[in-house]
Amino acid sequence: MFDFNLILIPLFGFLIGLFVSTLGGGGGGLYVPVLTLIFGVTPQVAVATSLASVLPTTAAGALSHYREGNVDIRTGLILGIGGIVGTVIGAYIANMIPPVLLKKILGAFMLIMLIPTLRSMLKRRKNKNEVKKESSKLTGPKRIIASLFGVAGGILAGVFGLSGTPPVTAGLYSLGLPAMMVVGTTIFVLIFNSVTGIGTYLLLGRLDIPLVLLLGCGSVVGAFLGPKLLKKINPKNFEKIYGPLTMGIMLISGVALLVY
């Protein structure tokens, strides 16, 4: 009998790749629930597979966004290095803290991240006519702050199999990058988290290679189409919806993790 998962898994990969490359992110927060709830994959394998599956999504998305001029390489490298450190730390933390407690910590953290994100959004609206390029000339303190946001994103990746989008997005917003630049640079940063996570979990023998390939082939196509769709959206309109939508996802995810 034909296994319809051979069609459904790449299809879900395509949809997730399209979604996250348009709004910014790697898709870890979507891969894990889809794999566990729809396809019945065990949480351990879902986490490892998620980190591997977001690599083609982030790589393809970052390349497309770079071609569109939506990636700040210098700032991305600073957050990315922090992400490497955080992902390794996260892997060790995962072996020390009970899963139920980890879920509560993640939920609380995502809700806390709403505060700097909201403050940055309000500040940007007050200075909407000012085009900021502070990230191109990061001072010592700002580099430290940026790297800490990267570390936080890496910890999320290492512990929960998430891409680490919320702290990275909040960090880029706090540095004053435009919304479209935040999207592209976030995806670029998540490459570091994904590669480091793959290496860590590969050593643990938790990667399901066929599953990764099925998800990856669909997500790459979606990730390439996302920036093309984003280019057709009016920047002013996108600026209005991106922040609130990002905060909405963070709020719902945070509450759900605390409650369930």
Structure description:
With 260 residues, the protein is mainly alpha-helical. It has one domain (5-259). It is 80% helix and 0% strand. It has helices at 5-23, 28-38, 43-67, 73-94, 99-112, 114-126, 140-160, 165-174, 179-203, 209-231, 235-259. Helix 3 (43-67) packs antiparallel against helix 9, helix 7 packs antiparallel against helix 8 and helix 8 (165-174) runs antiparallel to helix 9 (179-203). It is found in: Cell membrane; Membrane. Belongs to the 4-toluene sulfonate uptake permease (TSUP) (TC 2.A.102) family. It is a multi-pass membrane protein.
Radius of gyration: 17 Å
- In quaternary terms, these chains amount to single chain
Give the helix tally.
11
Helix content: over 70%
Q: Supply the number of structural domains.
A: 1
**Uncertain stretches:** 129-136
Give average pLDDT, whole number. Answer: 78
What percent of residues are in strands?
under 5%
Number of strands: 0
Shape: globular
Structural class, by secondary structure, is mainly alpha
Question: Which sequence of SSEs, written as H and E, runs from N to C?
Answer: HHHHHHHHHHH
Distance between the termini: 37 Å
Largest sheet: none
GO cellular component, one term: plasma membrane
Membrane topology: Multi-pass membrane protein
InterPro entries: TM_pro_TauE-like, TSUP/Inactive_protease-like
Family: Belongs to the 4-toluene sulfonate uptake permease (TSUP) (TC 2.A.102) family.
